[in-house]
């Protein structure tokens, strides 16, 4: 085996540079602030049992992993063999560490996966002390993963639950998350005489004051952004509104536009401007610049007064009302429509409803990272069993909505290594304010969810998969997605943790018409918000229509560098009629106010 090459050892600041008096003073301040923060935390909902709370998830993790441990102990011989493997790895690691301390070059026992940013600091490899903790962690977490993989007798749901909580625990126990085993934190602590930890405790206290029901760890500098000033700035007008949405029409940028306009239905779980961040990242600006008349729904941030609004209301008073307004404004009979995430699930439901009634309001439909069949919905299924939904419904019944912090907490838990712990380290251990980042500002700008609507969505789609099974009725109409015959453009994203690509593909098979399936690189957000000039990710298209699985489709598809946006625009041009004169916003409906409107600015 070739010898491992190590970077030159980086040196920590010498201990004599530490100001003992200042260090003691800062530690006293840290203990005082820490006590105050702990007292406040104990009184918060975070520490109490409740749907999607930290206390509940810790309990669930403990119970699940305890059950897994008992499963392992039920086969003593196999468990003893596994323990022996782990102990031999520890012994090899300790032996290598001693050899390194004497100046010998040795190959690592374990190395991080490519792209694991937790261990990017050079000292994780150059310094034997930090290298030991890194490798011990990697060895242990890999051993636990292998143990779970080789455990027999687990049903699929139990295995999925154990894998999820094992990842949560493994992410939390990384040595990068602790002051004494993270080289960057140690350097900063010595260099500042622990002022970084004092600053971090202040940032934690500030986050707790700003948070709602559950602690929201700041992911970005929220003071750097403002909706309407440097986010959601594509020119347009609000041309219609009711109590659940505002309809925005964007100003044309081309002399002529396509005859058939485009209506976009974003998810109500987040705010619409994910599709209109900065001009360089705006899918809306891009498609307006291609010569389309574009409308988008901006959902209200519901309060107690809208608790009764149902999934059917979001269809009737949302999509169908918006579509009628677009048709009246533009004078056309049929329009094109786009649904993103849960907005796409609502759109698919609406299309099935219209098909059952023999009504044709739409010319084509585009789905972005949308699930219609929830059989393979991933880890979110772990949060929708009957017991959890009963508790969630009880919580929502008290106030009429679900606070956005709870859903944000769930989404962050799906990727704790990327969406939780880096910010805890940066903010609370290094004592640094997070950097300004538009995407993360949007991610923290969460919305509430009307109780009746959200309960229906979780139960009927995630828990019972009624639409795909043909068991859903809306407004007294039985729904069958196979009856939807209009042309469909379906985009999945390869690393999606919210709408897994396999799940999106399964849903695409339910439509009865022509479906152009496309797979984008990256995940649920970055795979969609992927401007052409960045050339950051790739996409796959033109796979076999007869493919029965995503793997079969991908094996026959062609990979293209860059963004899927131009590919979609070309498809959309083919389904948008002839060129006609440009349309100014509100020519027939009138203007309510300038875009981005007031609904999107309401905070949770």
From TrEMBL:
Residues annotated as transmembrane: none
GO MF entries: acyltransferase activity
UniProt keyword list: Acyltransferase, Cytoplasm, Transferase
The keyword Transferase belongs to this UniProt entry's keyword annotation: yes
Residue ranges occupied by any Poly-beta-hydroxybutyrate polymerase N-terminal domain in the UniProt entry: 116-287
GO cellular component annotations of the record: cytoplasm
Top-rank taxon, per record: Bacteria
UniProt GO BP: poly-hydroxybutyrate biosynthetic process
Pfam families per record: PhaC_N
Location (main, coarse): cytoplasm
Subcellular location: Cytoplasm
The keyword Cytoplasm belongs to this UniProt entry's keyword annotation: yes
Name this protein carries in UniProt: Class I poly(R)-hydroxyalkanoic acid synthase
Organism annotation: Hyphomicrobium album
């Amino acid at each position: 085996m070739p010898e491992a090459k190590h970077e030159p050892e980086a040196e920590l600041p010498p201990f004599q540079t530490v100001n003992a008096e200042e260090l003691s003073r800062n530690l006293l301040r840290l203990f005082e602030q820490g006590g105050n923060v702990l007292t406040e935390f104990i009184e918060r909902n975070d520490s109490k049992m409740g749907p999607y709370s930290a206390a509940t998830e810790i309990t669930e993790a403990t119970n699940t992993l305890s059950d897994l441990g008992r499963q392992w102990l039920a086969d003593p011989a196999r468990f003893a063999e596994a323990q022996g493997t782990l102990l031999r790895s520890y012994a090899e690691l300790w032996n290598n560490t001693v050899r390194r301390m004497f100046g010998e070059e040795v190959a690592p026992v374990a190395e991080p996966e490519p792209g694991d940013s937790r261990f990017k600091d050079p000292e994780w490899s150059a310094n034997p002390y930090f290298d030991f903790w890194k490798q011990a962690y990697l060895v242990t977490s890999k051993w636990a993963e292998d143990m779970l993989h080789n455990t027999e007798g687990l049903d699929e749901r139990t295995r999925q639950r154990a894998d999820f909580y094992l990842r949560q625990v493994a992410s939390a126990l990384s040595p990068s998350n602790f002051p004494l085993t993270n080289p960057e934190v140690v350097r900063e602590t010595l260099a500042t005489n622990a002022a970084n930890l004092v600053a971090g405790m202040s940032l934690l206290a500030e986050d707790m004051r700003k948070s709602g029901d559950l602690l929201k760890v700041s992911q970005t500098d929220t003071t750097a952004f403002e909706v309407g000033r440097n986010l959601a700035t594509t020119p347009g007008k609000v041309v219609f509104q009711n109590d659940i949405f505002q309809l925005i029409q964007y100003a044309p940028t081309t002399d002529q536009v396509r005859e058939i306009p485009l209506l976009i239905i974003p998810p109500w779980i987040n705010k619409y401007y994910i599709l209109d961040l900065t001009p360089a990242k705006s899918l809306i600006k891009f498609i307006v610049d291609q010569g389309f008349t574009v409308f988008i729904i901006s959902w209200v941030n519901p309060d107690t007064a809208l608790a009764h609004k149902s999934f059917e209301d979001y269809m009737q008073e949302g999509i169908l009302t918006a579509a009628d307004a677009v048709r009246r404004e533009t004078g056309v009979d049929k329009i094109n429509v786009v649904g993103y995430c849960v907005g796409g699930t609502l759109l698919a439901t609406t299309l099935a409803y219209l098909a059952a009634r023999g009504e044709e309001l739409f010319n084509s439909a585009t789905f972005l990272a949308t699930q219609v069949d929830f059989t393979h919905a991933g880890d979110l299924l772990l949060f929708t069993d009957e017991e959890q939904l009963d508790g969630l419904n009880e919580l929502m019944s008290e106030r009429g909505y679900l606070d956005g912090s709870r859903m944000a907490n769930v989404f962050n838990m799906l990727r704790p290594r990327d969406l939780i712990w880096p910010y805890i380290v940066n903010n609370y251990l290094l004592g640094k304010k997070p950097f300004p980042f538009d995407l993360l500002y949007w991610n923290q700008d969460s919305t509430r969810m009307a109780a009746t609507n959200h309960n229906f969505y979780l139960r009927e789609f995630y828990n019972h998969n009624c639409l795909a099974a043909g068991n859903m009725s809306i407004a007294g109409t039985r729904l069958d997605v196979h009856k939807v015959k209009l042309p469909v453009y379906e985009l999945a994203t390869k690393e999606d943790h919210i709408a897994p690509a396999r799940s999106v593909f399964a849903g695409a098979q339910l439509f009865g018409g022509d479906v152009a399936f496309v797979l984008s690189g990256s995940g649920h957000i970055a795979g969609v918000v992927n401007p052409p000039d960045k050339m950051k990710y790739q996409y796959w298209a033109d796979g076999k229509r007869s493919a029965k699985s995503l793997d079969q489709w991908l094996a026959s598809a062609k990979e293209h560098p860059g963004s899927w946006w131009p590919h979609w625009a070309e498809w959309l041009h083919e389904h948008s009629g002839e060129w006609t004169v440009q349309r100014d916003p509100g020519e027939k409906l009138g203007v309510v106010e300038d875009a981005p409107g007031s609904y999107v600015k309401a905070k949770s």
